[in-house]
């Protein structure tokens, strides 16, 4: 089961799952993941990382990845807009893992503040303390190769791939291969990501799951539920109820 909480524009997904495989994707914000028990494997283009119990992983914005759970695991994921880290005095936080107990404790404290809808001053203090511990060069903090992919360009995803390829003066095959190499996702994966973000935003604004399904191009409710749950590990109905 996964629970969703939002305070201001900070989001928390708390999960207890035995198996789940997320698709290739990225987030435009920082993602801070910590595991209470079990493990989550994060696969990047360059490497694969296992995040075990009491460990914390930070994923920088636009770092394409997919994650897999194959054992009973309890975890939390915090989505933090980049401007929050700038206010916390940290603008260079790259993808990295920490096995230090104090980092895990500070991540837990940050989630608790968000769930309790604490004042933003308190939230920012907790975030600054967490970031400071993560970037501290003490043993237990492990640097990971930062993303080499560039920010995904703003393209009209309603256009056909053949049109985009012609505009780039490439064959369809070479256009798709070049796009995947540069940005980490295929056009098809990027479209599915955009649809998942749109569906999530519509549900947050109170949209009925059936209406949202139609809005993002799904006319079969069961297919929409399966698609949404694969990306967010929660059904649209449970997500909209918070």
Q: What is the CA-atom radius of gyration, in angstroms?
A: 18 Å
Shape: globular
Structural class: alpha+beta
How many β-strand stretches?
11
Mean pLDDT: 88
Q: Spell the H/E element sequence.
A: EEEEEEEEEHEHHEHHHHHH
Q: What characterizes the major β-sheet? A: 7 strands, antiparallel
Notable traits:
single chain, alpha+beta, 11 strands, 41% helix
Task: Walk me through this protein's architecture.
Helix content is 41%, strand content 24%. The chain contains nine helices and eleven strands. It is of the alpha+beta class. It starts with a strand and ends with a helix. The strands form two sheets. The protein has a seven-stranded antiparallel β-sheet with strand order 1-2-9-4-7-10-11. It has a four-stranded antiparallel β-sheet with strand order 3-8-5-6, with no helix packed on it. The protein is globular.
Topology:
Elements: E1 2-7, E2 10-17, E3 20-21, E4 30-37, E5 39-44, E6 48-52, E7 56-59, E8 65-69, E9 73-80, H1 82-87, E10 96-98, H2 101-115, H3 120-135, E11 141-143, H4 161-167, H5 172-183, H6 187-204, H7 209-215, H8 221-232, H9 236-241
Antiparallel strand pairs: 1-2, 2-9, 3-8, 4-7, 4-9, 5-6, 5-8, 7-10, 10-11
Helix pairs in contact: 2-3, 4-5
């Amino acid at each position: 089961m996964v629970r969703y909480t939002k305070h201001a524009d900070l989001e928390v997904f708390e999960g207890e799952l035995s198996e789940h495989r997320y698709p290739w994707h990225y987030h435009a914000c920082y993602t801070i993941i910590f595991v209470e028990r079990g493990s989550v494997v994060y696969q990047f283009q360059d490497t694969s990382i296992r995040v075990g119990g009491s460990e914390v992983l930070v994923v920088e914005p636009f770092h394409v990845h997919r994650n897999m759970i194959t054992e009973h695991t309890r975890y939390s994921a915090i989505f933090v807009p980049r401007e929050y880290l700038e206010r916390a005095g940290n603008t260079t936080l790259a993808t990295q893992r920490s096995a230090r107990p104090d980092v895990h404790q500070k991540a837990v404290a940050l989630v608790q503040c968000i769930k309790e809808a604490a004042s933003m001053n308190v939230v920012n203090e907790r975030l600054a303390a967490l970031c400071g511990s993560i970037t501290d060069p003490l043993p237990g903090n492990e640097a990971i190769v930062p993303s080499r992919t560039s920010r995904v360009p703003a393209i009209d995803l309603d256009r056909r791939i053949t049109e985009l390829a012609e505009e780039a003066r490439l064959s369809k095959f070479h256009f798709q291969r070049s796009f995947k190499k540069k940005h980490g996702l295929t056009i098809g994966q990027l479209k599915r990501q955009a649809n998942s973000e749109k569906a999530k935003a519509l549900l947050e604004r109170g949209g009925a799951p059936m209406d949202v399904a139609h809005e993002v191009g799904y006319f079969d409710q069961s297919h929409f539920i399966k698609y949404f749950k694969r990306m967010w590990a929660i059904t649209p109905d449970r997500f909209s109820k918070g």
